[in-house]
Amino acid sequence: MTAASFALTGQAVAQAAAPTCLSPGDVRALTTFAMPSVLNGLIANCGPQVGPRSFLMTQGNGLVAAYSARKQAAWPAARKAFFRLAESGKPSDKETADAVAKLPDAALQPFVEGMIGTMIGSKLKPGQCVIADKLLRLLAPLPPENTTELISTIFELADADKKAGPGGLKLCK
Q1: What distance in Å separates the CA atoms of residue 76 and residue 99, rounded to the nearest whole number?
Q2: Helix (H) or strand (E) holding 21
Q3: I need a labelling partner for 8 at 20 to 30 A (CA). Which of 34, 94, 113, 135 fits?
């Protein structure tokens, strides 16, 4: 996944919320869980822009499969981090989060995955698909765990100079 794509995911998850403190482990868990949905969102929304011969369109499904293998193991920590983000929102968001938290994982996971994929498409700006295609091509040789660690490190770097990192996320010190 590209750093820009994860920043879009973070923005969507934390939109309108005060910066929430997440640990680098929380960011890794969210990234690991979100990767397949982000990639599917990029494939669906960027395919027409980047064309059938692009890396995203020719290799994207293979990346989805590689990242999907780790998604379930990351879910318990990602679930906790997801709700930590939701708790920092407006009171009406908290009520919704409380209701959603009562859903069984079998219903909650597809809800979160669908939300991520949809938000990726709604947040993309013209030209970002070409950049995402290039970044995915460059990141593809890395094992999934290296990519999630890289994204977590990018958040740490961004957080060091700002009150909140990409997407309104703040890392715990």
Answers
A1: 18
A2: strand 20-22
A3: 94
